[in-house]
Write a structure and sequence with these properties.
There is one protein chain. The protein has 8 helices and no strands. By secondary structure, it is mostly helical. The mean pLDDT is 90. It holds the Pfam family DUF3231. It comes from Metabacillus halosaccharovorans.
């Protein structure tokens, strides 16, 4: 069913309007993220052997290039300085294989979800017609890519679907035990809590394999130590999330560490790797917010709060290094009237 059209405000959002702060910020984030993804996907394509996975990577790279091209055209039209982002100088195609083909599919699912979070958050905030249509297109095509990714994951038996639970015989209502979880009687996890544990585990096993690989190849010792801390912290978080599912006799996705090779030769610049992990850990903070919003148990809420604090510390430490090295490119800011 199509919603009924409302014929008002047609001339209030034309393409000659000045860009708002929301539109500027989301365009900037889209360009930065896709310039990084272009480097990574180009490297993945240099080593991939599986035909279906190669096609997924080609489709993802084509979307990256299209999104960058459109974003750059809008920026040029508006005299919006093109971000430096990441270039071919940040990738070394001559580096040996760092991941097995299977990892590429899990990685694509994770970064596609991250991209959708940018477009999804942007759509309600943008008003100019061309920007609105662009983000709708980004959202639609990324959703199409995720459908392809899921088909390949299932066809090749590379993933376990979220746990199955029994359907209730009647509507359910919370009782005195709904919020408890530390002591005494503890109710089973409800469907939304399970879904978010599954999502966080799926995201974090992908993130853990990536930061483990980056820790192997990064050149700067200070960044290496940060990556090693992030790797161990992510592993501990995943084990805590898995434990909550296991307590209700529910299965959980497994680690992907075996999909990382033993190569110690960096395919990416230290700048790209640090930015990527800072960005991925920032996305985890948003994911925790979504998880807490639907959670009811105190023990689960505390678990997410502890994870949030540790991940925030990682992001701050990464930002400090980025600033220290002069790598911290930031979005346009409001006028300084101080």
């Amino acid at each position: 069913m199509k919603i009924k059209p409302i014929k008002v405000g047609i001339n209030k959002t034309n393409i000659n309007d000045s860009l708002t702060s929301a539109e500027i910020g989301k365009l900037w984030a889209t360009y930065m993220g896709n310039s990084m993804s272009k480097c990574i996907l180009t490297y993945y394509l240099h080593h991939v052997e599986d035909k279906e996975i190669k096609l997924l990577l080609e489709n993802a790279l084509a979307l990256c290039e299209e999104f960058m091209k459109t974003t750059k055209e809008i920026m040029k039209k508006e005299n919006f300085p093109i971000p430096l982002g990441f270039t071919e100088d940040d990738v070394n195609l001559g580096a040996p294989r760092l991941f097995q083909d299977e990892y590429y599919v899990h990685y694509l699912k994770y970064v596609s979800k991250a991209g959708m979070s940018i477009y999804n958050a942007g759509i309600p905030l943008v008003y100019r017609k061309d920007i609105k249509e662009f983000f709708r297109h980004c959202m639609d095509t990324t959703m199409d890519l995720i459908d392809q990714i899921k088909e390949v994951l299932m066809d090749k038996s590379l993933i376990m679907k979220p746990p199955v639970i029994p359907l209730p015989e009647k509507p359910l209502f919370g009782d005195d035990h709904f919020l408890t979880g530390f002591l005494g009687q503890r109710r089973p996890l409800h469907a939304l809590e399970i879904a978010h544990f599954y999502d966080n585990i799926e995201n974090n096993v992908t993130s853990k394999a990536l930061i483990m690989a980056f820790a192997q190849v990064v050149k700067d010792e200070k960044i290496r130590k940060l990556f090693e801390w992030g790797r161990d912290m992510t592993s501990a978080n995943v084990e805590n999330y898995m434990k909550k599912l296991y307590q209700d006799n529910l299965p959980a996705p497994s680690f992907l560490d075996d999909l990382v090779t033993t190569s110690t030769y960096a395919p990416f610049s230290d700048k790209l790797m640090l930015f990527h992990k800072m960005d991925m850990f920032s996305m985890k903070i948003r994911s925790f917010g979504n998880s807490v919003a639907v959670n009811g148990r105190h023990d689960v809420g505390l678990l997410y709060t502890k994870s949030f604090m540790k991940i925030s510390k990682f992001v701050e430490s990464a930002a400090d290094i980025m600033i220290e090295k002069g790598w911290m490119e930031i979005p346009p800011t409001a006028a300084d009237r101080g």
